[in-house]
Amino acid sequence: MQHQKLMIASLASLLVILCVRRVRDSWVGWFVRGEFWFGITMFLRDYARVYTMHLAAGTASAYWRIVLARSSVTAEAVAPALLLLGAIALLEAGVVRRGTVVLATGATLGSCVLTAWHAVVPLMAYYSRYPISTLIAALDPYSQAGFYLAFFSALLAVKKARESPATGPSWQRSPSNLHGNSDWMPISAARRKFQAGGIIIGEAYRPDRDPKVGGKAPLLRYDGEVGSGHCLVFAGSGGYKTTGVGIPCTLEWSDALVYLDPSAEVFPMVRAAREALGHRVVSLNPEDGRVGFNVLDWIDTSTDRSLMDIQAVVAWLAGERVDERNDDYFKHAARGLLGCLLADILFAPGLLPEEKTLGLLRRRVALPIPELRQLLEDIYAKGDSYGFGFPAQLAGNLKDITEKQFAGFYGEAGNLTAWLAVPSLARLVCGSSFETREILSGELDVFINVPLKVLQSNPQVCRLILGALLNAAYEARGKISGRILFLLDEVARLGYMGILETARDAGRKYGINLLLMYQSLGQMTATWGMQGRQAWFDSSYLKLFGCLQDVSVAEFLSKACGEFTAVSQGYTHGSGSSTGSATSKSSSTHETTSEQQLVRRLIKPEEILQTLRDDEQIVLISNCRPLRCGRAIYFRRPEMLSRTQSNEFQQISRIAAR
To answer: Which of 83, 459, 506, 598 is most solvent-facing, going by the fewest CB within 10 Å?
Structure first.
């Protein structure tokens, strides 16, 4: 073939510019690159034409022999487009940059020009004798087909090149591990690791590489059995926590579910899907007022463990703090009063189980001071044989306190229970729609739909509901059907809850999985403190980050993803001359090439804030590489969207890539 020597020369020149930086970075390097593409284009054209003629020669049918022979010009024109398609694939994979696709496009267009030239030149001699329309009609159709196929391939390449990033990474990974070897978990490894379960982590694709795969990629699933079983989600306001985590998990989780959803938007959307699993689905919503349960029915008064349970309920009523101190006398005295009255209610043999509620506690706290003092005298008189002596001991500490001090903690106790005077709120925690132990059957789903303004002013409501359900699972000692997922949105509004720490540390063996959603690390730090936040990170198997807006969070995540060793290359070139006399003159040139190993973070904070897409997230996994993957936004997945009902709150719109 006539262009073999040209291709060999082009390859040799390409090797030269790859090895010598001085040539590679000059105009000579670009000239040689063009020469390489021209040489390989001519080689492919010749090879395609000869190969097609060879096929024609071996064909028995005369008709197909003629067709193949005439098609050789089409194959000759289209052959360079194969290189173009390969360059596009490498561009989408991030292996090459736009320049490679531009050169391949130029080679393909050059093939178009050569094909057109060979088809038009023979007809130019007849230009003066025939009209242009006749000459166009006389063009070889096989040449025209080859021209148009190559031309439109070039247009496709230009479109792909414009959609891709303008430049690739400015660094190169070193084979050395001198400064670390952090890297992203491959998507194939993530699919193998997270292939079963009802906790939806995300989608198995890289949005930064394949942005159009969103909604079509396989789901990454977690069953809650590996590791601690707990997950943390951090996403800013409007960060698809509900649509990308909450709703997908409620659709795919098959066991019992407790969902704290102050917006009340998820319950009507997924109720039918949860009922299709054979579950009973209830919504604790004060605006509805028909559903409630007794948050005290899980306390077993037959053992003295009930005394600690009573203290836990009082703590949920009064609120807990990480740095609990005893310097607030009236608050702690009020907690003692509430504990005394609550213990008297629960141990009273004359009360029916349905009468032992927080509503009765509120009515007793609201008694006038003289009547309340007399009640404390009566409780003290019952002695140590009643309620393991706990009510009498507390009453003995309180009954003889001076009027001024008594009035102080009497008012504090009234403030702590004032929300129980609101009938719609009291019904949530004093009702009889279901019993706490029903959560152990694996077929009860509880949606806590207390409005955000109520949760903000009276977090005791949700603390009591969650505390009762968590303790029911904890007291069962693993004797439950399946597992229970506690999916808590706006969990920072609850404040500090010691029972959540207990569930975090011991919940896995009791069938409890926690999925807590925060808007930022600051929310978690404000609730748990720095040491508490670190304890949550140490005890959570998965930490999901998306739609971040805080520089400190981006810095934290960047450091958590780790560092690797990168190579920085440098090149210097210089020349000089000197004149000793009229007849002597000397000159010199020098060049230096150097490589230096540097430390680079896997992803920098500014890259997290500026380039991380809205439908993209970074997942930190215990004892594994960090994972960069897509988010499983339910309305982009037809199989999920078909299982949800209309949502008046959610406006479905296209996700804009940054």
So the answer is: 506
Lowest mean pLDDT of 68-77, 158-167, 180-189, 630-639, name the range.
158-167
| Least confident range of 60-74, 341-355, 419-433 | 60-74
- What is the Cα–Cα distance from 130 to 512, expressed in whole angstroms? 88
pLDDT tens-digit series, residues 268-287: 999 999 999 999 999 999 98
Cα–Cα distance list, 268 to 283, 391, 403, 425, 647 (Å)? 9, 44, 52, 21, 8
Which parts of 348-389 fold into alpha helices (H)? 358-365, 369-381
| DSSP code at position 584 | -
C-alpha–C-alpha distance, residues 121 and 128, integer Å: 14
Q: Give the chain's mean pLDDT.
A: 84
Strand 484-488's sheet: what is its strand order? 219-222, 199-203, 627-630, 616-621, 542-546, 231-235, 512-518, 484-488, 256-260, 444-448, 280-284
The CA distance from 17 to 26, in Å, is: 9
How are beta strands 484-488 and 512-518 bridged, if at all? parallel
| Mean pLDDT (whole number) for 518-547 | 93
For residues 200 and 287, give the distance between their C-alpha atoms in angstroms, rounded to a whole number: 30
- pTM comes to 0.73
Domains of the chain in start order, with CATH, are 4-168 (no CATH), 171-264+481-572+592-651 (3.40.50.300)
Phi/psi for 447 (5° steps) reads: -105, 115
What pLDDT, on a 0 to 100 scale, did the predictor assign at position 323? 61
615 CA to centre of own chain:
8
Stretch (H or E) spanning 15: helix 4-19
The amino acid at 29: G
Which helix (H) or strand (E) segment holds residue 72: the answer is helix 62-78
Rounded to 5°, angle at Cα 572 from 571 and 573: 130
d(CA 264, CA 412) in angstroms, rounded, equals 32
Per the CB < 8 A criterion, the answer to whether 465 and 284 are in contact is: yes
Residue 194: what residue type?
A: F
Over 462-501, what HEC string results? HHHHHHHHHHHHHHCCCCCCCCEEEEECCHHHHCECHHHH
Contact 617, 233 (CB under 8 A): no
Cα separation, 153 vs 606, whole angstroms: 37
Is residue 21 predicted with pLDDT exceeding 70?
Answer: no
CB 109 within 8 A of CB 154: yes
Q: Please tell me the distance from the alpha carbon of residue 275 to that of residue 622, in angstroms, as a whole number.
A: 34
- Out of 251-260, 326-335, 492-501, pick the least confident: 326-335
Q: List the structure tokens of 106.
A: 């130029």
Euclidean distance between CA atoms 483 and 474, whole angstroms = 12
φ and ψ at residue 653, rounded to 5 degrees:
-145, 165
> pLDDT tens across 181-202, in order?
889 999 999 999 999 999 999 9
Q: Is 254 exposed, middle or buried (0-12, 13-18, 19+ CB in 10 A)?
A: middle
Tokens of 428: 């949530």
> CA-based angle 44:48:51, to the nearest 5?
135
| Residue 204, φ and ψ in degrees, nearest 5 | -85, 75
Q: What single-letter DSSP state applies at residue 389? A: G
Instruction: Give the percent of the chain with pLDDT over 90.
Output: 50
Q: How far apart are CA 545 and CA 620, in angstroms?
A: 8
Query: Would you state the structure tokens that stand for residue 598, as one six-digit string?
Result: 């540097």
Q: What is the pLDDT of residue 590?
A: 58
Per-residue pLDDT at 629 exceeds 90:
yes
More confident residue, 112 or 547: 547
- Distance between CA atoms of 31 and 285, rounded to whole angstroms? 73
* Nearest-angstrom CA–CA distance, 522 and 516: 14
